[in-house]
């Protein structure tokens, strides 16, 4: 907020009306601006450059190639594809463990030895499984499909559709893992993630 305010004050002082979106160009004012009051703090040259640079970064949305390069929709400009793949694989590992632990505790119940603490743990494992499946689906949608899978990034329409299919398979596998306690669903999820990880390596 301070940077935006400083950039606005600076633009009035030097006679510019606005900062352009692309390449942060500064356009010349067509409307006269009011001179700042005498009480307004003056900018040193270095402060002015910092304010212009900060405002430029805030207002730069895209480059000429129109590719979105940010992991969030601010956009912030931060991507960590290997980190995202690692996070998704860790979530899939957690889903598998949740299934295995829940099934083990349930087998104890069939032997007549399920205590209340075991029942509590089953509920917690299932909630954890649900949470991590949702995390995978969320990352596929918000990080990958919204920001990384752009038609312009692929050599052909066929490559683009293949990428969409790979991401969709991961989302479907995560959804199926939510709906079952069969570890085969985790195998399917891991298989889909192997294909996905090749795209981001």
UniProtKB/TrEMBL annotation:
GO terms for molecular function: nickel cation binding; superoxide dismutase activity. Gene3D superfamilies: Nickel-containing superoxide dismutase (1.20.120.400). InterPro entries: NiSOD_sf (IPR036502), Superoxide_dismutase_Ni-type (IPR014123). This is Ubiquitin.
């Amino acid at each position: 907020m301070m940077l935006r305010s400083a950039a606005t004050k600076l633009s009035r002082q030097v006679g510019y009306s606005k900062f352009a979106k692309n390449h942060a160009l500064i356009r010349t004012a067509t409307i006269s601006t009011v001179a700042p009051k005498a009480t307004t703090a003056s900018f040193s040259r270095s402060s002015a450059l910092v304010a212009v640079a900060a405002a430029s970064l805030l207002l730069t949305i895209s480059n000429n190639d129109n590719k979105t390069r940010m992991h969030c929709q601010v956009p912030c400009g931060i991507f960590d594809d290997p980190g995202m793949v690692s996070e998704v694989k860790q979530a899939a590992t957690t889903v598998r463990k949740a299934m295995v632990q829940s099934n083990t505790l349930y087998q104890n119940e069939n032997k007549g030895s399920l205590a209340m603490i075991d029942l509590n743990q089953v509920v917690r494992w299932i909630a954890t499984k649900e949470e991590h499946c949702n995390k995978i689906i969320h990352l596929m949608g918000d990080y990958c499909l919204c920001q990384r899978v752009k038609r312009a990034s692929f050599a052909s329409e066929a490559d683009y559709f293949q990428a969409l299919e790979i991401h969709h398979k991961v989302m479907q596998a995560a959804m199926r893992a939510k709906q079952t306690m069969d570890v085969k669903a985790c195998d399917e999820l891991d298989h889909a993630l192997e294909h996905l990880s090749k795209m981001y390596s």
